[in-house]
Amino acid sequence: MARMKFLCDAERCIDCNACVTACKNENEVPWGINRRRVVTINDGKPGERSVSMACMHCTDPPCAAVCPVECIYPTEDGIVLHNKDQCIGCGYCFYACPFGAPQYPRVSNFGSRGKMDKCTYCAGGGGPEAPSSAEEFAKYGSNRFGEGKLPMCAEMCSTKSLLAGDGDVIGQIYKERVVQRGYGSGAWGWLTAYHEDVEV
Amino acid sequence: MRGCAAICKAGRTRRKASSAMFLACLRLAVGALILLLTAAAIPAIAQQLAPDGAPNPTASGVSQQTLLREEPRIEGYIDIPDTRASVLIQPAGRTWDHFHEVTLHWFGAIVIIGMIAVLGGAYLIVGRLRISAGRSGKKVHRFNAFERFSHWLTAVSFVVLGLTGLNITFGKILLLPVIGKDAFSSLSQAAKYMHNFTSFAFGIGLVLIVAMWFKDNIPRKVDIDWLRQGGGFIKSKHAPAGRFNAGEKAVFWIALLAGVAVAASGYLLLFPFYVTNILGMQVAQVLHAVIAVLFVAVILAHIYIGTLGMEGAFEAMGTGEVDLNWAKEHHDLWLQDQLAKEHQPAASGSAD
Amino acid sequence: MNGSRTASNRSLQWGEKITEPVFESKNDYNTIYMLARKLGFADQMFKNIKVENGEVSAEDILREINRGGWSTGYCGQSPERLKAHMRNQHKFDLVTLRAPKDDPEVGGEYYGLPWPCWGTPEMRHPGTPILYNTDLPVSEGGGTFRARFGVERIVTRKVIENGQQVERQEHDNLLAEGSYSAGSDIKDGYPEFTLGVLKKLGWDTDLTAQEMEVIQRVNPNNPDLVSWATDLSGGIQRVAIAHGCAPYGNAKAHMIAWNLPDPIPVHREVIYTSRPDLVAKYPTLPDAQQFRVPNIGFTVQKAAVDRGIVKQFPLILTSGRFVDYEGGGEESRSNKWLAELKQQMYVELNPADASERGVKDGDWVWVMGAENSSKARMTALVTERVGRGVAWMPYHFAGWFQGVDLRGKYPKGADPIVLGESVNSLTTYGFDPATGMQEPKATLCQIELA
Q1: What is the pLDDT of residues C150-193, one digit of tens each?
Q2: Mean pLDDT per 10-residue segment, chain B (352 residues)
């Protein structure tokens, strides 16, 4: 079974935000919810690197472990989905997530933070809605994965720095790139997310 | 170098040419030194250049490992105003998750079940503490309506907060399998609302209790005697006490300190990232959970002693009137003051 | 649709159709054919291009280009040769772009036969990967600098002779001196090849009868004038190359752009310069009339220096582009996805300059421009992206003016989501001497806490 992952090649990322815009547009993500974001390390200094980050769809996801109502779960493909109907908006998944992926509609926790929203790998949602239905789209966004397509962010990446797909395949692509060009700062977040790294 | 020595040797025999020869040797030696130093620097220079001779673009690049060695989180610059988003990777999340799912579960289970076991054991072994002299039938006033109201406000709030709070950690293990996911999540949703709103009631109640009973809970010498005498648990001894004995004072102070701690950490959790960063939020949650669990255990003991554990104790908070013999046995010093007050109303009135 | 595509390295590739046009659209060739038919000259236009069931042959189009594209060297890249390149892509070296000489189909050719690819396709010129390379014979992809500006430059000058002012003509030889291709029979500069030039060299006898016939047909009255660019047979090109010469001549490279204000680029300080001490040596161009309006850059520059304007406005102000925004920003800032990414106008300031002014990252600041007491209010981004003494602003914002939010002035519903100050309310006088374009990239400013 293919195990889906993300890999951002920091040497290629130009902080163009195409991935962010693609995700927003494809999933009609409301203002204030940042499913994907680009963070720039050492901004303005030599060795500046930008990394595009969203939910990494971790192995053994800490968000799923800590959820009080167990509404988050990994699928067979490794994609981590959640059921917004069951979410109580406690905000614990954000504390557990090493990547800051969970997003909430409300800023204060008075009552609730609202239903948690996060990158779905463009695979729809973890609720009872029918795949690719209008109800699923309204709640979770697009279901490209159900149509055999990869997430929009990686498809739109202008430099092909953001890779999505089978972890073995994208790991191999990245490795070949590093060998070919002679440098690479590694697969950011892989060790924390997947308990394994790409040997470069 | 050998050639240089030979030249120098030859140079010595000819004085005129010797200085020139010496300079030649010097130049050779300096040149060799420069070559040596340059050779040492070649690896560093090589790192600045890629294999094909072009400048190496990653010469000043950073890796995750070096960044994480310097700081526990990798943070950077972000366009959007949400400052939380500037944290790229915080591996501490997994650590916190482990604390919450493993450590806290064990800790909570051991502490609470342990306390229930201890209390159960106390009931089975020691049994209900009877009034030694038996009921006198006469009553003395202990707590007024407002005091009782404040106590019950705090107490009921605490029970609600405790149950709804424990649901966050233990609900999915104990309750979810019984009622199913959808029902459990609706219940937890309601529980969360209750927890949030009841926290204010608890806070108000705590303030009232502290305001009312602060004076009477200040530790005094008599508390040491009370402890030495076994605190009323040893029937042969008499433990003196004021309005509140050392045990009750302990509950008061624990309630105050723990109450403030859970309230403060709780409000941080209620308004996340208003004041703290991700680490602060994780710490707040840890403190809130650990202190709350301990608090629950202490209050379980308090509930036990106030209900099952001791005859005549509950009516203090129930009706506000206690049996005279009970008061004599457990709060003798307070009883003296209380009786004096009740028998001298005219005296205090005519003192103006 | 099928057809050749030319890349910016001058290589051509043959592309195959991968999908049908959507709905009832037609591809470009068929559309042109239908238009030509409608206008009544399709038969003439497509007389050499096969059209079958409304489908225009892409190969025939390229062949027609080959038959006429002599002056740019678009003549040797036939569809057959290009398709052979696509079939044998893996044979071409990634760095030299050359296939091994012994390959039967594409031996010795450069990938995509970069133009100029001289002569007829039958001649099999390998293409020219690097222009003007005299280390290689022309037949191997080398070349000289073209003699398209004549063999001589005659300049009339006034000189003093015997106490009298007279006009003398100076003749400058424009042909190459001491530079020629490897394997060239002429070891000197030479003009563009015509039949006349071939005759002078005695090389006209190398032309075949068919080639001569075509040359005669091109210019029956004066065939000597038929050149390498107009000879439809390709014979003049073939003969020149056979003798190791480039068909377009061998001249000196042209460095003087005589029709620009500075024929050779020289340094000129910007109008509002942070280095007034350099203006005496590197002044801007003198005041002049430009496209019906005066360009008084010199006067403005001198005034700025005389007034010592840099003391009041010590920071260089430049403007630039966001990766994710476009132009004036009205569309970008109206798009909710993009507007969220850049919610504020800001000025990038170096940490040293910021601390001098007591400015912290995110503080509101006033930026003052050097003319007309212009000012703008925005937040400061304290960063090392800019060096000391330089401030950078994005030019994608509008809707604020001199610190006042003008959202109310927009027609209802037309205001973009994000508004901000325009950097060009701070930029100053300056117009390019050739095009008249404004100077928005180099001026002076001062920044202070708001």
Answers
A1: 899 888 888 888 888 889 998 989 999 999 999 999 999 999 99
A2: 48 54 72 61 54 66 87 93 94 95 96 96 91 89 94 96 95 95 95 95 96 93 87 78 90 95 95 93 96 97 93 92 90 88 59 44
Contacts of C342 in chain B (CB under 8 A): 79
What's chain C's Rg over C-alpha atoms?
31
Q: Kindly tell me the burial class for residue C347, based on how many C-beta atoms sit within 10 Å of its own C-beta (0-12, 13-18, 19 or more).
A: buried
At C389 the three-state DSSP class reads coil
Cβ within 8 Å of C, B 28-87:
77, 79-81
Of A64, A79, A82, the closest CA to residue A166 belongs to: A79
How many angstroms separate the first and last alpha carbons of chain A?
Answer: 25
Relative to beta strand C375-382, strand C346-349 is: parallel
Task: Determine the Cα–Cα distance for residues C96 and C105; give it in Å rounded to an integer.
Answer: 18
Q: Which H or E element spans position B98?
A: helix B92-98
C:346-385 residues touching chain B, CB 8 A cutoff: 383
pTM above 0.80?
no
Domains of chain C in start order, with CATH, are: 3-129 (no CATH), 152-242 (no CATH), 276-449 (2.40.40.20)
CB contact at 8 A, C246 and C144: yes
Instruction: Determine, yes or no, domain membership for A164.
Output: yes
Question: Is A200 within a domain?
Answer: no
Tell me the residues of chain B between 175 and 194 that have a Cβ less than 8 Å away from chain A: 176, 181-182, 184-185, 188-189, 192-193
Distance from CA of C95 to the nearest CA of A (A): 14
- What is the CATH classification number for the domain harbouring A122? 3.30.70.20
Which among A162, A165, A166 has a CA at the least distance from the CA of A187? Answer: A162
In Å, how far from its chain's centre is CA B255?
14
pLDDT 10s digits, A57-80 = 999 999 999 999 999 999 999 999
b/e code C92-117 from CB counts within 10 Å (16+ = b): beeeebbbeeeeeebebbbbbbbbbb
